[in-house]
Amino acid sequence: MKRKYFNVTGEEPVEDIVEKLVSGSMKLEGHGRLDQLEGGSKERRHHHEVVVDIQRSLNRLHQVFLDMAVLVETQGAQMDDIENYVANARQFIIGGTDSLYYAKQMKKKKKNRKWLHWVI
């Protein structure tokens, strides 16, 4: 009865009204609330459409967050790859620097040998 009264009037019934409805001394159809019922139905339909639109928007937002999570995970793997490449490049640079130093030392020795050879 409470639900039926709420559906017709859009208001929560108080205990006195519920008792009258149960006893039969009060009827919902005889209160001139038909215009409220029609207006209430339109209003409820509008509220339902708004709720459905909000749910649709929330689903889209949820999908955006899922897509972002996938992108972040992918970029995390790419960042790990970049980190490995930088570490490898550092090793190559150290190796190249050592090779240049060795080559410079060899050049000095070779140059000194030429002078030594000319002197002898």
Write the layout of secondary structure elements.
Layout: H1 2-9, H2 15-23, H3 34-119
Question: Can you describe this structure in just a few lines?
Answer:
The chain is mostly helical and 120 residues long. The chain is built from three helices and no strands. The radius of gyration is 43 Å and the shape is rod-shaped.
Descriptive notes:
It is a single chain. With 120 residues, the protein is an all-alpha fold. It is 86% helix and 0% strand. The chain is built from three helices and no strands. The chain has helices spanning 2-9, 15-23, 34-119. The longest helix is centred in the middle third of the chain and has 86 residues, at 34-119. The radius of gyration is 43 Å and the shape is rod-shaped. The termini are far apart. 0% of the residues are buried.
Q: Which properties best describe this structure?
A:
mainly alpha, 120 residues, 0% strand, rod-shaped
**Biggest sheet, open or closed, and with what strands and sense?**
none
Query: How confident is the prediction overall: mean pLDDT?
Result: 79
Structural class: mainly alpha
Overall outline: rod-shaped
Strand content: under 5%
How far is the N terminus from the C terminus? Answer: 125 Å
Helical proportion?
Answer: over 70%
Query: Nearest-angstrom radius of gyration?
Result: 43 Å
Question: Which H/E pattern describes the elements?
Answer: HHH
Low-pLDDT stretches: 30-38
Number of strands: 0
The helix tally amounts to 3
